[in-house]
Amino acid sequence: MTYPRYQLDCGWNALLPRREANPSLQHDIEVDVAIVGAGWTGIAAAKRWHELAPTDAITLLDSSEIGEGNPGRNSGFLLQIALAEDANPKQIERMAQCNELSGETMAQIVAEVQQSGHQVDLQRAGTYRAAASRIGLKSLNKYRAFLEAARLPFEELNRHALRERLGSDFYQQGLYSPDCYLAQPAAVIRALAAQLPNDIQLYENTPALSLKNAPGGWRVTTPNGNVTCRKLMLANNAFSKELGVGGSRLVAMYTFAGLTPVLGDEQLAGLGTDTNWGLLPTHRLGSTLRRTADGRLLIRSMYGYEKEHSQHRIEAELAKRVRRRFPALANTEFEHVWGGAVGFTLNGGALWGEAKPGLFVSAGCNGGGTVKGTLLGRLLVDKAHGMNVPDVPKLFGRASWMPPEPLRTIGFHIASTVESWHGRHEL
Ligand SMILES: Cc1cc2nc3c(=O)[nH]c(=O)nc-3n(C[C@H](O)[C@H](O)[C@H](O)COP(=O)(O)OP(=O)(O)OC[C@H]3O[C@@H](n4cnc5c(N)ncnc54)[C@H](O)[C@@H]3O)c2cc1C
User: How many domains does the chain have?
Assistant: First the structure.
């Protein structure tokens, strides 16, 4: 399958008013540039291309609908600084440049959301990171070293302080960093798509099924029409490998989220003093949590290698993880659960650049691609126009090679079993 087909609807999108999707492509077209994937990366790339070449015909194709597809399925953290996994206190100069680029990109997102006039619950609420066990504490210490070396502001919290603010005594220790926005992600991506210039043609429900060279460029096949273009950009994340780009470096890792109904006053009173917060895990297999501005609890956790888990398994596992953290919510059922695909690379580096003449790709967000995807989408367009761009592979890493199947699947299952055991107290 060259595009994601989710078994469960996106919970964030279900909370929003119905949106009329743009029509799907129904005939052959010829354009200057075609972009596959109207997510954070693809929308940013389309806008940037239009800024640099306003008379070029630009088309964006998406297999899903804006808000319902992958870009709206995340936990809604928009990080202004490096993730704990990317942060390296020994490379402060490089990290400072990454953080500066991310900060500028975030400012552009905020400005566009404001211009759109959409209500997206965007707030610079910051983010907690907290550890429940020895392995989590080790990673928390590493992140603290990075924040200190980078002279970034943060606050340290012990179990008592975390309990008071978040209502859970699951965690032993935590850090709070103000450099993160929280938002309703499906609403944000709708707002960003609404800000596309009118002469960019967006086709929804239009999956790219295959690509091939055509005279002077590329041809993209979709179910009811072909797109011939001079330049082609793949911004479809994990699924670029299904179109023949990045197969040796990228896998689709599914992860899952559950959102409760708006909680009652009594339940909310037990959830600490902060009324809009987000918490990221310190262990790769840990859980992301949010208390939303409207009083819901979100949990994101678990991974599925190249496939989704059953609804029953997602609900049961996520509920167990909520119970461990908030025993008082043991009887609260989720209003929505869903899955989404992350473009995962072995070393966390990006798959970015000109893959073949006239064919560009930006993929491999590794679970933190709202702001980074926006940035790398814009920079890819600059590169396609021959501009001087920051050295993306040096700054954000270059996706490393992965062994082919079946070794890859076997390796993943072994690594995940070992990691799950080590990180079992953080799950
Ligand atoms: C549950 C979950 C929670 C997450 N939480 C966070 C978070 O809090 N913060 C954060 O920064 N990141 C988070 N992530 C990761 C984040 O969602 C991604 O990094 C981000 O969406 C990447 O943006 P993108 O535009 O590069 O790709 P995507 O968002 O994956 O967008 C790719 C688009 O391409 C389309 N597409 C795919 N194949 C085709 C095809 N063949 N033809 C046409 N269109 C196609 C898809 O429909 C999609 O719209 C999370 C991910 C998940 C699943």
Answer: 1
